[in-house]
Amino acid sequence: MKTKSDKLIKQSYTFNKVLDTNFLAHHYEDDIEQIYLVFGIFLTATAKEFEALIVDVEAIELEKIIQKIHKIKPNFLLVGLQDVYAKLNTLEINGLLIGKQATTCKLKSLYQVCEEIYFPILSAELESLNAILSGT
């Protein structure tokens, strides 16, 4: 029995080239509904956690910053943002070596790129997926 999702896979939805489309197709087995849910959760939770970290970063100890990076980092991988994941991973690993000021500066810069480029792309993808799933 074919499901609504089976029809969507055959429509071969094309994600924005910024996203790791091979990862998304393989990891979610082309299940557009699942990808839609993950993108939605990412935008309502992870993006806001990242923003909260940036707002409070000056008042937080370096070890706590690294813990928070560790917490949000895998979510970027799950939405196909391997580049951001890799940069967060580098900050997590090297944070103690480069110090708080450098870590904070790099983290703020990365957040700005996410806010200006990646989050809007994910929002647009979410809207497109919603339109497909709702049949509009």
List the helices and strands in order: HHHHH
Helix amount, in percent? over 70%
Radius of gyration: 17 Å
Assign an overall shape. elongated
Proportion of residues in β-strands: under 5%
Uncertain segments of ≥5 residues (pLDDT<50)? 1-10
Task: Please give the number of β-strands.
Answer: 0
Q: Give the oligomeric state.
A: single chain
> Mind summarizing the main beta sheet?
none
Number of helices: 5
What features would you describe in this structure?
The chain has 136 residues and is mainly alpha-helical. It is built from 5 helices and no strands. It has helices spanning 4-10, 21-27, 32-56, 62-78, 82-134. α3 (32-56) packs across α5 and α4 (62-78) crosses α5 (82-134). The chain is elongated.
Provide a quick synopsis of the model:
The chain is mainly α and 136 residues long. The protein is built from 5 helices and no strands.
Question: Secondary-structure blueprint of this entry?
Answer:
Layout: H1 4-10, H2 21-27, H3 32-56, H4 62-78, H5 82-134
Name a few traits of the molecule.
mainly alpha
